[in-house]
Amino acid sequence: GGGEAATANDKLARQLSELCAPAHGSRSGPAAGAGVAGTMDLRHAFLGLQGALRLKDGLLARHCGAPVASRLKVLEMRGNYIGSAGLSLLLPAILAASALRTLGLAWNSLMDEGVSRLVSGLEGRATARASLAELDLSGNRISDAGARSLVTLLAPVRGGGKGGLKVLNLDANSFQKEAAQALIYAACGRVAVHLDRAFGKLLSKTPPGAGQAAPTGGGKACTARAL
Q: Could you tell me the CA-to-CA distances from 127 to 33, 40, 89, 94, 100 in Å, in that order?
């Protein structure tokens, strides 16, 4: 409704303004929003497509000679249901956020199409790929195809650096055991992959199937962390 849209606009404008401003100390806790240096907390902000577009424009605006996005370290957007179309609008800003460490896109109806676009974008932008350490894609109706496309992000970054994903949350999605297992074996020894509890022990006991990567965790068993 109109009230929700106005609230979303106000919250978005306030947090963009705080992100642009010089840091003056810090506040803690979820309500602090962008008051925590480099953080935008837009959980359940009713952004929709128009909000995603405004956020993209705000982050790509130049401030002190650089895009505002260059100051962004945490972007939390849980529960905005922007869909794959909204992600496509926002993706240029995400890729411009060269210091982004945490990206929360849970419950945004991204589905396989949105996940594929995100993976392709990150693979094409080395700085964003290396910087991003935590990615939350829980509750996005991701099926086997979308889950398998994420295997690319679980590989070490080019050049053998220490960057790249450390945590990938895929709780509450729609893919099956085989796709989940491909993720676990691709991530072994590098990335903590969070999955539904239903996968649990099956993933820790079943060997990789044909075409799946063998464990690379120094001989340790590859296991899932069930939420």
A: 25, 20, 20, 11, 9
